[in-house]
Amino acid sequence: MSQIIKNYAAFGEVEFRSYSRSKSIRIRIKPFGGVLVTYPKYVSFKKVELFITEKSGWIKENIKKVAAFERTAPVIGSDFETKSHTLQIKWTNANLNKIRVINNCLIVYLPIGSQINDSANQEQIKKGVDRVLKIEAVEYLPKRLSELAKVNNLLYHDLRIKNIRSRWGSCSIKNNINLSIHLMRLPYELIDYVLLHELTHTIIKNHSQKFWQKLEEFLPNSKKYDGQLKNYSTRIY
């Protein structure tokens, strides 16, 4: 399988995957999963993009439907916690919403008279959660990735930590590793699984049987962790 990620003004981020066993170009739009396009390896990427252009109306319509479904996701309230931070809502008369991180507390200021489940308030809270996830990710992930690489005699070139919502991580052809801040919402054993998964890609660039065998050497029962990871989403909110 090969993978390409592109951003489009009309659709946002689109993930493309080519498979040897695919027989046609397919578009899937899943809640919290974004737009995924799969296609046969023998089909040129130019032809795939032309197909996307032809189906742009259908894609836009279904993105709206999925977005409406996503809005029914659980409300983030004051009981929300990350690994190191607790969320505190403060109601204020000020017109300007504010977000502060003090010690291990995320403080989000919201207008008095509004409801916590108002869409604008939820967006403000999500911005705050993203901020502390980035803080935690920068503090934890580089050190842990380095530790796992050293123990398993693996080398990577560079690490970037981003607010990626389409995948947990990736490894480029040049062995640059990208990790999502949303990894910090996973149990630590699943964080290790993702990190070792991407580190294994520094030596095997596909998901062949050899890849899984090598990953199993680094992390016994890796398929079990792969199955558990499917219970989580980078787009939980």
Could you estimate the helical fraction of the residues in percent? Answer: 25-40%
Sequence of strands across the biggest β-sheet: 1-2-4-3
What is the CATH architecture assignment of the largest domain? 2-Layer Sandwich
Mean pLDDT: 90
Tally of discrete structural domains: 3
**Count of helical segments?**
6
Beginning-to-end CA distance, first to last residue: 28 Å
Would you list the SSEs in sequence order as H and E? EEEEHHEEEHEEEHHH
Total E-strand runs? 10
Describe the main β-sheet briefly. 4 strands, mixed
From the alpha carbons, calculate the radius of gyration and give it in angstroms. Answer: 20 Å
Q: Work out the strand percent.
A: 15-25%
Describe this structure in words.
With 237 residues, the chain is α/β, with parallel strands linked by helices. It has 3 domains: 2-70, no CATH class; 86-134, no CATH class; 138-229, Metalloproteases ("zincins"), catalytic domain (Zincin-like). The protein has 6 helices and 10 strands, in the order E-E-E-E-H-H-E-E-E-H-E-E-E-H-H-H. The strands form 3 sheets. A 4-stranded mixed β-sheet has the order 1-2-4-3, covered by helices on one side. A hairpin with a 2-residue loop joins strand 6 (98-102) and strand 7 (105-111). Helix 3 (119-151) crosses helix 4 (188-200). The longest helix is centred in the middle third of the chain and has 33 residues, at 119-151. The model has no long low-confidence stretch (mean pLDDT 90).
